[in-house]
Amino acid sequence: MKKFLIVLLAALVVLSLVAGILLFSYSSKYIGSKEAMRISLEDAGLSYSDIRDADAEFEKTPYDAWYEVEFETHGTEYEYSIAADTGEILSSYNKPDR
């Protein structure tokens, strides 16, 4: 019985370590929605205080991952696609707000 408990405890420790490594790997792999928003705002020449209705959503396919960033100013709507791994601007679009 004592041997079984030791083996069980060792297995739990190993599983916990593997889970922690996987979570760290996932969280450090992508830039995050806040960084995607910062990149978009910098490209648009704006700051957080200039915008309203801001949103950044993570999108993923089996081959790629990106953030769809949208925000508005008083007069213009902006849309950006930002690569989740590098922060590269994949596309940008803006149009007058109606």
Structural write-up:
The chain has 2 helices and 4 strands. The chain is of the alpha+beta class. The longest helix has 28 residues. It has a 4-stranded antiparallel β-sheet with strand order 1-2-3-4, with helices on one face. The termini are far apart. It is elongated and about 75 Å long.
Write the layout of secondary structure elements.
Layout: H1 2-29, H2 33-44, E1 52-60, E2 65-72, E3 76-83, E4 89-96
Antiparallel strand pairs: 1-2, 2-3, 3-4
Assign the structural class, choosing from mainly alpha, mainly beta, alpha/beta, alpha+beta, or little secondary structure: alpha+beta
Binned strand content: 25-35%
The percent range for helix content is 40-55%
Computed over alpha carbons, the radius of gyration is: 21 Å
Q: Report how far apart the termini are.
A: 73 Å
Strand order of the largest sheet: 1-2-3-4
Alpha plus pi helix count:
2
Can you count the beta strands?
A: 4
Low-confidence stretches: none
Q: What composes the largest sheet?
A: 4 strands, antiparallel
Average pLDDT across residues? 86
Order of helices and strands: HHEEEE
Shape designation: elongated
